[in-house]
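Z., the sequence and structure:
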Amino acid sequence: MKDSAQLHSNKDELPGFLRGALMWRGSVTPRIFPSLLLMTGYCLLIVALDQYWRPLPHLAVTPFEYTGVVLGLVLVFRTNTGHERWWEARKLWGGIVNQSRNIVIEALSYVEALNIGSQENLWRKDMVKWTIAFSFATRESLRNGKNLDDLTDLLSEQELDAIKDAAHMPLFVAGKIAALLQQARLNHYIDGFVFKSLEEQRILLIDHMGACERILKTPMPLVYAIKARRFILIFLLLLPFSLIENLGFSAVFIYFLVAYPLLSLDRIGIELQNPFDTKNLSHLPLHTICEGIKLHCLALSAQPQSS
């Protein structure tokens, strides 16, 4: 079953400028619209009070020019930090893809080619299916889910239930791979050098998974997030008092043009912090990545092996 949350996953940018600029789906605009509307309404209220009730205190524009530069630097740092987390997660999943391919290639190619019997063939099939299962188990673990329907054609119902009941699904699958490697070594399907190489690839899978968990469980420091948003709020609360003297009701439009990018950049920083959560915009397309691992590994196992 295809993950419906792929609608919000990262996709290629549209080539057309206007189409890309006016895109609604995938944009942070719907998510900041209530806050943007509230802040713009606040500015309209300030202007209306100044025009129809009595003059309110007016502030010079110059301080906002300087603080605006500082605020921009704060938001750029916040956005860059989120992007670094997103890009690191993508590189880690690239490693999971590569290690999965390496394990399958070595398991299929380096088993003793002479006198291959049913046990060796069964071992090969088990290595392929459990290597594929690792990526799916890792995906669901990072998303706090247990949807393994994509593995029903590879694993039995009992095996799927065992994964779901495990305290840590990816480690359970990694343990299965380790047990298969030990079995192959004891039964002399592989020699010591191949065992060592396969074990190194298995360890790298766990390393990549652990690094993804580090990203997931270590959000941006709360103290920085609070200060950044507090700075934005103070800036937007005081800004109307520097615009009303010369602009009148035109201040509302100018205020909107300032608030929109500030709130957008703040939201982008939040969206990029957790690249695994399907509720976030531009989350990593883990469904597609896992399906790619499955497709490629099964294609490798379908190829005739040299004898």
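Confidence is low (pLDDT under 50) at residues 1-5. The two ends are 38 Å apart (CA to CA).

Let me know what you think.
H.
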